[in-house]
Amino acid sequence: MPTNRNTFSSLAAWRRRALSRAVHRGWRWVQESGAVTADRPGALRFGRIGPGTRLAFPQGTVFGERWIELGSHCVIGEQVTLTAGLMPDLDLGPDPILTLGDGVVLGRGSHVVADTTVTIGPDTYCGPYVYITSTNHSYDDPHEPVGRQWPRMEPVAIGPGCWIGTGAVILPGATLGRNVVVAAGSVVRGEVPDHAVVAGAPARVVRSWDAEKGWQPPLRTPAPVPIPTGVTPEQLLALAEAGETAAPPAE
User: Which CDD domains match (predicted)?
Assistant: First the structure.
């Protein structure tokens, strides 16, 4: 009798392993088939989607694609929301509303909500769960529920080469210069100069680069190892997602 129980137990374990392998193979096939590229846009009709750009499956909420332009070799993680306009099926005019430059990376679960112009410069990398919006609720009337009051909209411009850490929020009207670092969890409003590190809520400049003095205050960490030649944006995105619980880059 113990022999029979061991046989049945081994058979059940084999079936569970086989089922697990089948589920994982099936999910990989679904992810590959559901990914959006220039050659396989599916039901999404973007104003532009450059070669090498890929939106991972499953996608988040996407509407207003006609007014969304995606550059080349962008990496859009799973469950990323990209919207143009307050709601679907609006006519937003002849010009793009949301523009991503070449090589932009948006980490898993990020939101880019463009009710008016939002521009993200080339080679800007966003960690997971970043929120970028050109719209904010107004609360001028103390007697009317905030959600029923018409929102305020201001353009957002993010310069090239920025790094935006996990969970950061970029508010309407924000303008980020070139190679800006936004620490994880920061809330950014207003103008941020080139080559600055900002942190906090609201974010403030905690480090900046001077052509004569270098970084002020000076960096206390060793120089990083350069990214090896041949590393793909997909691999960099995987590293960003793996480090989503890491400490903010600002000291």
Answer: LbH_MAT_like
